[in-house]
Design goal:
Layout: E1 32-34, E2 41-43, H1 50-53, H2 62-90, H3 95-119, H4 122-138, H5 141-149
Antiparallel strand pairs: 1-2
Helix pairs in contact: 2-3
Length: about 160
């Protein structure tokens, strides 16, 4: 089975662009994908079986989110204060500075949302659902063996 990483993001069978078909947000799923155009299977190393790789503890630490929130606050202050004075004194602003200000706000809000989902356990529950789906896929011995043949360190209980 050919990996799309070695084909430039194209299906090894028909050449269709398969990188656009899947969201980065679904990185925990089966690395064995099926081309929607030709129906052939290929190996996509961007995806990981959670039952093999495990739940990433760093993604469940709210400290990283707090650091990103602090950076968002710094961006808001660094770019917000000059924008405020520029608008109040001269009536104009620099779009690049305003864009950075908006980026800082977005970073702050997204980081707070991430920290809240971690502290409330919502994010962990999401990973547990993905883990259950991964274990269900791996309970198919043929699938587990296919992953082992591709070089994955599949636990013996699935083989």
């Amino acid at each position: 089975m050919t990996a799309i990483n070695s084909t430039g993001g194209k299906c090894p069978s028909c050449g269709a662009d398969v990188l656009k078909e899947y969201s980065v947000l679904k990185e925990y799923s089966s690395p064995i994908r099926t081309c929607k155009k030709c129906g052939q299977q290929y190996h996509d190393k961007r995806f990981k079986e959670l039952a093999i790789s495990g739940i990433p503890e760093k993604n469940l630490s709210y400290k990283q989110s707090l650091i990103m929130a602090a950076l968002g606050v710094i961006c808001v202050l660094v770019f917000g204060i000059p924008t405020y004075f520029s608008i109040t004194r001269s009536g104009y602003y620099y779009t690049g500075v305003v864009a950075m200000l908006i980026t800082g706000f977005i970073m702050l809000i997204m980081s707070i949302i991430d920290a809240v989902t971690i502290k409330t356990g919502i994010k962990k529950k999401g990973y547990e659902k993905k883990l259950a789906l991964s274990e269900e896929r791996l309970s198919n011995r043929a699938y587990a063996q296919q992953l082992a043949d591709l070089g994955y360190n599949v636990p013996d209980k699935y083989l």
